[in-house]
Amino acid sequence: QNEEKWDFVLVSDIHDVDSKNIRRRNFLDELSKKGFTIKEIKDRKLFYGVCAPNDIFQKYQCLRRMADSRQPSCSDHEDVEDTDRIRIVNFIVRNTVTPDSEKLQDLMNKKVFEAAFPLHEKEEIKRILNEDWARWGVLFKEQPIEAIRCYFGEKVALYFAWLGWYTYLLVFAALAGLVTFVAGTTVFSSSQVSKEICDANTTIMCPLCDQNCSFWVLSDTCTYAKVTHMIDNEATVAFAMFMAIWATVFLELWKRERAIVVTKWKLHEWDEDEEELALQLINDLHHPPQLYQHSYFRSTIILILALLLIMVLIGIAHMLVVYRAVAMALFTQSEVNLLSKHANTIAVMTGAMLHYITIIIMTKVNRRVALFLCDLEKPRTLSQQENSFTVKIFIFQFFTNFSSLIYIAFFLGRINGHPGHYVRIAGRWRLEECHPSGCITDLFIQMAIIMVLKQTISNIMEYLIPLISHQLRKKRKKRPKKRGMMLGEEEEAEDSCKRQWLNNYELNDVHIFSLFDEYLEMAIQYSFTTIFVAAFPLAPLLALINNIIEIHMDAIKMMRLHRRMVPRRAKDIGIWLQVLEAIGILAVIGNGLVIAITSEFIPLQVYKYMYSPCTRDNHTSMDCSTGYINNSLSVFCIQDFEPHTKVLPEFKGHQIKECRYRDYRNADDYTHTVQFWHIFAARLAFLILFEHVALCVKLIAAWYIPDVPQRVKNSILTKKHQNLCNKLSMIEYVTEV
Length: 737
What we know:
One of its GO terms (molecular function) is chloride channel activity. Residues 148-716 form the Anoctamin transmembrane domain. It is found in: Cell membrane; Membrane. Belongs to the anoctamin family. By secondary structure, the protein is of the alpha+beta class. It folds into three domains: 8-119, no CATH class; 145-475 and 512-603, no CATH class; 706-736. It contains 24 helices and 14 strands. A hairpin with a 3-residue loop joins strand 2 and strand 3 (46-51). The longest helix has 37 residues, at 296-332. The model is unreliable at 479-494 (pLDDT under 50).
């Protein structure tokens, strides 16, 4: 006996309230009027299996043929794919209106129905996906994209095709980053700048706080200096340029890959508006088209509210700055030797962890605000709603994730003033200073902590929460055994449906933005991988490891822990492509700024070619960076300290009259030296040159790599020619007859 096949299942509590029973019955009656077959099964819940009549699918096929400019003959009917069948039934079920003008979502909000979902099928394709995709043993095996499309639809298949392509090309970025990092480790102890810091045991530095802080010797930070120059070297510049080119090549190659896949699926001419209109007409022949609309008033309100939230996010970044300044002062004055000795590093690390906590909290807030703004905007279709939501949530998440990083990269140590004239928070706490060897290590630590936490804790929770939730739902299930009122074969058939429906119901629900969350996670990761990658060359490697695990973790969740997602058609990844292109441009700007402002690359080059011993003597054997550290430190007379600064003038038995600090200022009036302006001009020139060269290379790469391969273009052209020939032959035949 063939097993019954049901397109959709509705779940309801066994209500004692008559009003809910009436509403439920009214909705099911409306479905019955449209020819739907409905089967009821009672358990601890009420289950309603829904099966659509074949004439609905015949209408859909006919309208599709006409939309595709094929011969508008509806006499021949092909079998409808399961993904199309589920999508059509989902649209009709969710847009069926009761006599009380209530749709399914309204009834679910009022608890008349608890859930509505398509079923995971017991088919060969599911077995293929479970064996070749949704298990940990196939981590390095190619994904069965065609099988994913046949089971979850084109939108999900395109996401995994894109993610697989991104992960594949990350191999090259990860190798380049690893080579850059290894090249940095080779100069860990041999860098001339690091050697000077490690040997500077007579260079007395100014205190790091105002109260009870002593002077300190520059050589105490020897290890920190070595780490800094392991990250900050000439190879970093080449790697930043490589990543700017890589980001462009990745997107251009993806466009080609997408064109091949979409043409293979015969979706290159598919139109979303026509699809929506066809489904609306099938559901209700008299349904008027939903027209486009725009309101400048609503747009203004949305813009104002969005700017307010962005200001709040920037304010949170300022609070993190305040925390770091206060923590630095408290740790420096601590009696615990470990805290006082490594106050800066501990402040950076705890600040990064606090930043990660704010990311978790604000992600939830950002989502609610973005959804509220989308409701205000009133988008016409689901795709427009997704696009609107995508732009808003990505902008909010970008500021949430990167505001603190932007401060560390471009403002830390540059707006704090100088001894005798420090910039203070609330007139009390000094802003942080950079280490004499530069600020890039602070950015490295911040990025490393956030990326590691996001890719471990977040992914573990993303997998464990659905797993635990599913196990708890299974434990709570109770299977009543009283089936006396039914006969043998009917009982057996119904038991089979009941078991399948219960198993699907016990899985975790999928919401409308389930796939969106995966895209957003990858877009934020892509931002970390490209925008500040000059400061953290290991970012592509961490992203690669994460993605290899992510693909199969998502597959396991979708196949075993979540209900089946309603398949949706798509011919590209939508607005995410524009988001990724915007990130690529930001990556050029960001990396250019990191090298020009955060890195010590430019000041060191200016010193080598204008102020080093090499410019005065022909010392070919001398390292031209000799003397750079002494040159980059200014002199401060301790008698010029502010009145409330309490510093002991003695240090290790010596009377201290002056100390050094990181800046380019004159010793008499503390104004900027000529060298400061030389470095400023060089930074600006490098930034302009780097960004123009990188953007030109991006444009050339985009031009050089066609978006659509020639064979795909030729295939489409040949099919158009053949269709026109067939139509012309038909016209001539009709004319002759």
